[in-house]
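Q: Here's a chain of 148 amino acids. Please give me its 3D structure as tokens.
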Amino acid sequence: MYSLPTLQSQDRADVAVATDYHTETAERGQDRAISTYRVTESVISAALQSELARRIEAIMNYRPSPETIFANPVTLTATFSHDGSLFRLEGARSVATLVLVRPCAYCGTGEFSSIPLTDLADLGYALTVWEPLHADCQEADPANWLYS
């Protein structure tokens, strides 16, 4: 196991100067790391906004302004609301998926992601046929409810 060296030969003033120098150097390194992260975060956000706008335009022939798209660089998601529908770009950069997000059709809570939207037919299905449900929710009483 590694042990710290003893500083018996240095006087206290030398130790204080050395400590201040290393603290300042570490703080500058931390400041650089934070500023680099913030720049990277804004680049990732812009890329997510641009990609979601491009995919919506490819399907709907409508290109939203990137400023109207919320991007989360930590979760690598971007969301956009249009005519009461919530679109979300999910997943890693190289395999990001465009989905429609809806609440449970029965109780109106939760968030469910549709099938991947790759064309207008997928969007039509997600808007008309797809009705997501929680495992414990039912659309209506089952046909044989009297006999259960």
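Q: Can you summarize the key feature?
A: Confidence is low (pLDDT under 50) at residues 1-13.
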